[in-house]
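Morning!

This is the sequence you dropped in the shared folder:
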Amino acid sequence: MRPTGDAGEEVIFEITRVGDAQRVAAVHVASGIEVVIQAPASAALVDVRALALRKLRRALAGEPDPRRRQRGPAS
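The structure's back. Tokens below.
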């Protein structure tokens, strides 16, 4: 599956069911940057692809993941 992002750049989605969940990887073809999300197996395909694409756009923009704690220098 190779839909495009807003700028017309190619993105490849890989969706794998793992038990009661699905693993969704989105890869930006030009840069090779990949992000992965997990969602319930019952989640709609259009929703999980949209979520993965938003996460990929954040990664391409260089924005940090807001869920990750920023660590300071070791003491």
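Headline: The helical segments are 45-61.

More detail when I'm at my desk.
O.
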